[in-house]
Amino acid sequence: MFRGLLRDGVETTLRRLDLNNLVGRSAEDLLVGLTDTICHDGGSIDEAIGRDAWLETVAELDQFGIDDLDSLTTAQVSAIFMAYVSHAIEARLFQDIGINGFHVSASVSETESFERQLRDYIRRSVRDSFSSDLSSLPNLRDKEINDIVDGTYTDAWSLLEAWGDME
Predict the structure, then answer these.
(1) Domain segments of the chain: what residues?
(2) CB 92 within 8 A of CB 52
(3) The organism sits in which domain of life (predicted)?
(4) What gap in Å lies between CA 157 and CA 151, rounded to an integer?
(5) Is residue 34 a contact partner of residue 22, using CB atoms and an 8 Å limit?
(6) What are the average pLDDT values for consecutive 10-residue runs of the chain, which has 167 residues?
(7) pTM
(8) Helices marked H in 27-73 — which ranges?
(9) Handedness of CA 17, 92, 114, 107 (dihedral sign)
(10) Would you state the pLDDT for residue 104?
């Protein structure tokens, strides 16, 4: 979908996805309307992570300076894409913590501080990983994107483990 927006524009992408009812709508309405297309509803944990990440991204829409999706810039599409990927990695980490457990003896304030630092690390890592490739985002294959996401996730999980070991 992101690649289509960059390559073909908003209206063409919406028509290709059979979402003509979203043409001409506000940026927020359009992005919320894309939720089911981007994050197919089906109930698996991975789908729930994707859906949560997407809705977190839409909630931050005002940070991207987007008023009109018809005039989206490459930088804005890239910012949305990177925010979505970052939120997906964060949600996956928290889901894995819930499944596998994670114990540290840190205070609440230390834990909150580490969480903020981890989120910042993830966002920087995603930005750095894609910065050279974002100009070619329309041509990136899913495997290339998944490799970057998986690598960033693995690095972030290693940070969590190191923090746990220090505690």
Answers:
(1) 2-166
(2) no
(3) Bacteria
(4) 10
(5) yes
(6) 76 86 83 75 67 88 78 80 90 82 74 85 86 66 83 86 71
(7) 0.74
(8) 27-33, 35-38, 45-59
(9) positive
(10) 66
